[in-house]
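wait is this the right file?? whatever heres the structure
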């Protein structure tokens, strides 16, 4: 079986199929990735170097940038990125490129599965025309199966997370289920590719909208002088009909801030406005501004202003215990603080250097002397390995946007 795109979805998927006894061919156009894999170096946090090394050594995992190998493959799973353009419109150029490359070598009896999160209709509009010389469901099989990778999640992984599979025909669904059930604990067939595409968008829109709700709740609680974290913790004691989400400095990662906009974009082409998605996106993208305003207000309390103040950003990854900074709200907060003339440093053990806006920042060690010499420490990412007791003791002022500090003190402010 083959996998096109060896990122945070494709590489773990490849390892699962190797574990299931398949010989997996990985295709990626990034030679650095191929080189790292051949040397047994894992660039994906959730793929252990030992597993990768053994897969390569035993020749169960072969990698190439040549799509010509498709001629010898029975199946291909497409796990390429689906980002947004600067205009916030979907960018399916990677899917189009992979499909074009596959089309040149596709053969009878192949199974093509698109895994990249995308708007409903993509699989039918892009993959089916690429295999129009074959009878779909008889001579060739096409399906959509959304990835459900939660980076850094130590409990749920590619193997034990149920996999949704929707085929272009019932026969396609059956064939795709037959493949994935060899490597994934539970496969869930659905009635079409569009249904499977929509399932994924519901999952991530559900998160984006609920995160937007609690971010607005944090703003409302601030105006009412009510501790939002206590409100959510108490509401979470309700044993039914409630699921806690937590306010934060904004929405990061390459999924939650992006995927719902694929859905709202598609509905716009049908003259419909997906209001919940757009409102949630507006609130979530406003949070970095809200945090910077709050930093200014906290400094005001001690007669300091943002301009010239030394600010330490504690954590820049998009969420706890990951190294990924894509769409991280910390980047927006740093930009906004720079515009206000603050003197910036950051500390993040997962992100040794941060290249942004043409410059490169280096992570400073989280030490007493660093904390004592800043005017305020802003907790943006609540990595488990941070020494919060030391931050509480040494920092003169703290703005904690993640409710990471458990002790209370006059110098500690929360969202
Ligand atoms: N966040 C909050 N408050 C919350 C939860 C998250 O502010 O209550 C923030 C996080 O800090 C982060 C962003 O939202 O910046 C996204 O976090 P996330 O964990 O929801 O998103 P991802 O992209 O790491 O992973 C998610 C998966 N996460 C979970 O299910 C917990 C899942 O939705 C998808 O499998 C995955 O995106 C994907 O690939 O679509």
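ok assuming it is, sequence goes like this
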């Amino acid at each position: 079986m083959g996998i096109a795109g060896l990122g945070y979805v494709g590489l773990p998927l490849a390892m699962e199929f190797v574990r299931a006894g398949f010989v997996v061919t990985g295709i990626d156009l990034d030679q650095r990735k191929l080189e790292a894999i051949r040397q047994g170096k894992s660039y994906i946090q959730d793929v252990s170097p030992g597993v990768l090394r053994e897969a390569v050594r035993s020749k169960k995992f072969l990698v190439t940038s040549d799509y010509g190998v498709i001629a010898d493959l029975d199946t291909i799973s497409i796990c390429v990125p689906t980002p947004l353009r600067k205009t916030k419109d979907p960018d399916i150029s990677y899917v189009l490129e992979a499909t074009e490359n596959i089309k040149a070598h596709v053969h009878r009896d192949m199974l093509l599965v698109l895994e990249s999160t995308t708007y409903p209709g993509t699989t039918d509009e892009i993959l089916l025309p690429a295999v129009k010389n074959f009878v779909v469901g008889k001579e060739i099989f096409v399906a959509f199966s959304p990835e459900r990778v939660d980076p850094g999640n130590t409990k749920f992984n590619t193997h034990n997370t149920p996999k949704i599979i929707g085929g272009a025909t019932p026969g396609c669904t059956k064939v795709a289920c037959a493949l994935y059930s060899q490597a994934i604990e539970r496969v869930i067939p659905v009635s079409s590719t569009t249904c499977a595409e929509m399932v994924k968008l519901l999952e991530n829109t559900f998160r984006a909208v609920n995160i937007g709700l609690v971010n607005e709740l944090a703003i409302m609680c601030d105006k009412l002088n009510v501790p939002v974290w206590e409100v959510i913790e108490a509401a979470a004691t309700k044993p039914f009909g409630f699921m806690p989400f937590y306010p934060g400095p904004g929405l990061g990662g390459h999924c939650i801030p992006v995927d719902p906009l694929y859905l709202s974009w598609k509905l716009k082409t049908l003259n419909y406005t997906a209001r919940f998605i757009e409102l949630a996106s507006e609130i979530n993208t406003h949070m970095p501004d809200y945090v910077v305003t709050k930093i200014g207000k906290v400094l005001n309390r001690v007669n300091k202003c943002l301009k010239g103040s030394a600010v330490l950003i504690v954590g820049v990854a998009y969420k706890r215990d990951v190294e990924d900074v894509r769409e991280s709200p910390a980047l927006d907060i740093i930009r906004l603080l720079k515009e206000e003339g603050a003197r910036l440093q950051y500390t993040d053990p997962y992100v040794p250097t941060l290249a942004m806006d043409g410059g490169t920042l280096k992570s400073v060690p989280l030490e007493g002397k660093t904390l004592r010499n800043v005017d305020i420490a802003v907790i943006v990412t609540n990595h488990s390995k941070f020494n919060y007791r030391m931050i509480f003791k040494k920092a003169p002022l703290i703005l904690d946007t993640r409710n990471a500090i458990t002790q209370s003190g006059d110098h500690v402010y929360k969202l």
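The longest helix spans residues 193-224. so i think its the right one actually
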